What does this fold into?
Amino acid sequence: MNDENKLKGTTTVGLKCKDGVVFATERRATMGNLIAHKGTKKIFKIDDHLGATIAGGVGDAQSLMKYISAEVALYRLRNGARISVESAATLTANILHSSRFYPFFVQTLLGGVDDNGPALFSLDPAGGVIGDDVISTGSGSPFAYGVLEDRYNKDLDVEEGVEVAIRAIQSAMERDAFSGNGILVATVTEEGFKMLPEEEVKSKLRK
It folds into this structure.
């Protein structure tokens, strides 16, 4: 499996809504033309107020998520308060940048809710970090963006954002061979991180 396939063979979506952040991904893991796994987890809880998605090498992605989660937990322990979303993104960027000569082959979306409200960031393997309202990564992102550009607006609440995110992932799954095998959706609000039940996601799919 070359690095190009590692980085591109997936679809992830992140939306910043007025009351939180929505993450959605499909579940297929590929090795070139082979579907290696049909139930891959691509959304991670980092803290009660933080979540992340991954696209790329599975081992690198899992290691990075554990690394970030540990650092965020240490911050809370040392400071007695939750880390801001922007600070968590900067921390992740520093981890990625410090490893740029032996990089994590991942593209990450990180977002959540803090005292400043919802926030969403995209991070590349070299440690570049960009904040935005709507982001999609991976090989299916051009198809996902087609839906997002049409349906997203800043006044969406999380419930509406879930519908849009599912439509975007479903569109990618219908046209991108590297994306498929179901959809995972998670939300982050002031009430915390929540992974939507599989049956709830299925009930929202376009027939």
Summary: The helical segments are 3-8, 58-79, 85-98, 141-151, 158-175, 198-203.
